[in-house]
Records
---
Amino acid sequence: MDAWGVDERYLDSAKVEHAISAESIAAVRELIGSVPDDLERTAPLVVVRGRPLALSGTVFLEDGSEQPLQPGPLTLPPGYHQLRGPDGATRQLVVSPGRCCRPSRRAWGWAVQLYASRSRTSWGIGNLADLRTVNEWASERGAGFLLVNPLHASGLTAPLEASPYSPTTRRYRSPLYLSVADLPGADRVDLAAAAGTARALNDDPAIDRDAVWRVLRPVLEQLFTVSGSDPDFLSWRHQQGRSLQQWATWSALVDAHGPSWRDWPGQLRRPDSAEVARFADDHGDGVGFHAWLQYHLSRQLDGAVRAGTVIQDLPIGFHPSGADAWVWQDVLAFDASVGAPPDPFNLAGQDWGLPPFVPWKLRRAGYAPFIESIRATMAAGGGLRIDHVAGLFRLWWIPTQLDATQGAYVRYPAEDLVNLVALESERAGAVVVGEDLGTVEDVVRDTMADAGMLSYRLLWFEEDEPRNWPVEAMAAVTTHDLPTVAGLWSGVDLRDQQAHGVPADEASTRQLRDRLTDLAGIGAAVAPPDAVVGAYRALAQAPCTLLTATLEDALAVEIRPNIPGTTDRANWSRALPVSIEELAGSAMAAAVADVLTAAVGYGRDVAEEDERVEHRAQLLPEERTATSDDPETQAEIILADSDARTEDPEGTMRDSHQTPQ
């Protein structure tokens, strides 16, 4: 790493070293620019409670009180405070607990693409009422959580962005997920015609977001007209302050001037300009409408999580023409995008088209863009999955004039960022999962373990048998970017890749199928549904804290939600083949649920699981096999799980005092 934080070489996932070209290094250095001389004296100081701190002064706590600070172990409460040093200079002092909130019990859950999870009454796309229905069904079947795709808003002009991983903001949610029937005023407006048009969209196996929004938006505007003066909404809006005002103003500006802020009239391109303030004053109803949408998205999400924890996904970034880029434009490098270097699954590398934060500028901004995004995505649900968690440590920058193979890794203040995640996790009572797949340094997983973040383990990727995976992890068979079990088994996924120009590796696909055959103990001729159940029986052997199954696997869907690198495929737009009301009658979904429920026992205590895994590790191989496979032992486990269910009927993941705010 050089003075700019740019790595001159890196190891890929196979531990092969690669040198970064001089051209790439020079381009990235220019984009980063010069670090201010006073940064180390003025940037926030992020520290861990209980660790020694060699500073003195007066600390002004966020609750309004103040305390003297002397060198030694830090005893201040976790929070965002201000430190005034002996010289009178003031800087922010962030005290972190150092560890994220950890689940008190093991649990399993469904990975849900919400847009795809339509009910019979959906308006062409799955909504938050549907999320509530899925959560209630899942809880009744023994699940302790749902893992959902990012719910963040994309731009609201056609064509609407399909990928939930390229949002316009990571702080606010998409109004496409609103349930109209649950909005105030729905009983005072004639919705019959609009509802009929929207529900007809459910007949299309593809999600047409543009068509949904054309029907939905006029109805939302009608409902705002009759209920937008609700005192509870007005009070909530006032409490949200500047952040919500900026989002709602940006949305109203999009209505007036188009989707890209970089094409707006000059003074409107700066969120703090007098012209933007005048626009907000002159378009009060439009700004109020977009704030009102967020109020009801927040309320409906609160209702959806009552049946069980919802772990929300945080994308690695946001669209360069979007709301967050407008607000935080001074902290970003717009002449670069983030992605990934070449690997066996993407030989040309990946360019995600999202602008990176300049590390020193992020520090100078007090980490506000990061904190607000983490806090907002944790809100209500009780869990957070950080997509590409290695991005807290380093990001692959691709200068605009180069391709994804010519990028360079740029270092980030990982210790600070991880401690900020821990602080927000403790405050929200939210478990944190880091998606640590692909080219990930050892330091990433070591730091995650120290901070109480759960790792992410996949049946498709791990070389060890599931029974040898770590306890502090979320385990799954596959993800939205990888083959479904049925698609792998039938060969449909390989043909799908080839049909869309992906240089698919047939040998790797055969190896993956052979691995599933061995792990699941199934014959090569079994039907895809049997392969699905076999895959989850194999996954159930993992001692990981959280186990995850996809709804696509539960329904033997052969087409995965997304194939990275394709542009002529309907990624992120394929609905489930059945309505969510039909999930309760699905024999396959019931079989997967039964396998995973027996494995976790409706929430076995994590400390007990740690002891069980340690005991198994000390056994001889033949003893270990008997412990895991012996029918009598399994019967005892299931009986013990039934007892646990009686004691804790909701199978809660969190400690009783860790209620999400």
Note: The first helix runs from residue 22 to 32.
---
Amino acid sequence: MNRWLSSGVVAVLSCACLGTVAIDATIASAAAAPPASAPLIPRYTSIPYRGSHTAAQRQAQAAAGATVPLWSHTDQFANRSWTYQMVGKDPFVAQATGTTTVDTMIIPVKMNFTNGMSTDASTADASCSQTKSAITQIKESPMLTNHAWTMGGKSIGTTQYADAFRRANFYAQTKPGGINSSYHLLLNPVNKPLITINANGAGSARAGAGCGTLGFVDFSAFDNYVRTSLFPALASKGVSPTTFPIFVLYNTVLTDGGSCCILGYHSAFDNPAFGNAVQTYGISGYQATTDFPVGYRDVSTLSHEVSEWTDDPNVGNPTPPWGHIGQQSGCQGNLEVGDALSGTVVPTLMPNGITYHPQEMVFASWFYREPVSTGVNGWYSSNGTFTTPPPVCDVAYPPTNVKATGGNHQVALSWTAPYQTDPPTVGYRVIPYADGQALQNRVFNSTATTQTITDLTNGVAYRFKVQAFNNSRFGLYADITPPVVAPFANATGFIDRQTRDFLGHAATPTELLAELAQLNADKTAPAYVTSLRRGTDATTNVDPTTRLYSAYFLRIPDISGLSYWIGRKRGGTPLGDISNAFAASKEFSDRYHSLTNRAFVELVYTNVLGRSGDKKGVDFWTAQLDAKKKTRGEVMIGFSESGEYKTKQAPSVDVAVTWIDMLAASPDKATFDTWVTNLTTGGKTVGDLAAFLFADARYATRLGL
């Protein structure tokens, strides 16, 4: 059910939420409008996803209901896999319930300009013969009202335009008798109150050509304000990552460095108001002036942005390069399904007597150069303008088979030259990513398909993107490599070594798969060591044995002794048996054998807990020994497993175990004490210690490097 406010009623958000808001004039220059003589060239744009989540993590968010529903698919072209994510359900898999509905927040915007002019998407504009507001006309348009769609003689169904595009896009699956004949992707419009924005120095306005007012607002200032001010204010008003908000401007365009005119765009970012779940959104103008051709009026922009959102919600779906068509004068490599046919529309008469102009859209088969299109009639666009895939663009295709092999402070890269480059390849650029963060790129003016990236830090998870370039431009990046942690040759070797060192066994297939997934999601090597130090084996076997060792012998454990007894504990030997063995040692006997039970207990308090024993405690343990209810070995366990000793000894255990496991040697006393202090009061963590040891030359030496 559509949840619209009653006709003619426009609610204004209260001052506590938004009220009348203003774009800060200091964000952009005051000259947002181009000179009156400058051409007004309509175009669309997009902003790639700004956030920290990988495609797999975004898919997981969708599956958990934290963001809009997503599905993914992989096509093959030019010896490379091209994986994309779209909104809705996977049409290639038979769906028990074929309909996806997304709440679509329709947010009208009024722009006030310093010269007293304004534009308002929520009210009718008699000066442009608009008897209904832009919002009402959008409501009654084929974007939100059902229409019977026929494409090339094929019935697509009576539905909204974006849904008709999706059904036509994958007609091989959604046609009668197809595996998903009941497939739909529907928008549930939810009308939101008017937002009034004072453009100040970031905008200007003038009379439109033929009618009304034409407003100009700086693109960067506007988008920054939407993300940093409007979204936080709208978080309590039902606008969340599970919805698709569309901010509607009327007779207002965006300028970029004085260039005009951006009619709409879409993007995505991590919304901090919802635990950094991915928030998608769109900006759409509704043009009623004659400043722009009919192919850019009424809902043409809305159809462009909504359709691009359905097929590339995070503005990151890669494609083989295409261009020199539509609004794209050069080459681009993304799944923006409207750009190649910007201005090409499908006039559609609706019951309200208005002929709308939704834009024709391009099918996925066109972008991925599928020899047989999945689209209706075998077309490559929704109205049959494209009947074949695009020609080759003058940009380098991505290299393929990129492999990264780690070494000591370096990684060797190799790849297969691009499928096609026109003009020919003259070199390659490599971007290293360290623990998920991009580093300075490395440019190689050579056609060699092997390069070594040096000066790397051991213990850091590196991944790499490689692109070719010619004398025209840089090409497309190859798929990013799997992570490799120097000095290990590959991630599998790294995981297996840590598992052997910290868990005492070779990594199982389950452990390898689980940790590879974590490394692919940018988990760091120090974080992996930390997880092992805090895991079940550590709390059950390693830490109790190490504490007992330290309580008995009052020194840094030697590697052979500690490793032996941890192995025994892992093998099922009770801690009591280990304690009794320690109690029988000459070192323990020399320290405590001649003492009375009371003197023994008092000295244990001093040696182990570092304080004098309280009378109640000393009396208790002495009585236990005198009555032969406890052995001295059992008393030692009582101390080593006490909450007081666990807390006191935790930094020492972390340093001793991490050092011994990673370097296969005990630290010297001074270094040990320094790191215990670092972990106790210096703000350092086990991960910091692991990073220090990974980078230590002795670690690579231990591995034979």
Note: Residues 643-663 form the longest helix (21 residues).
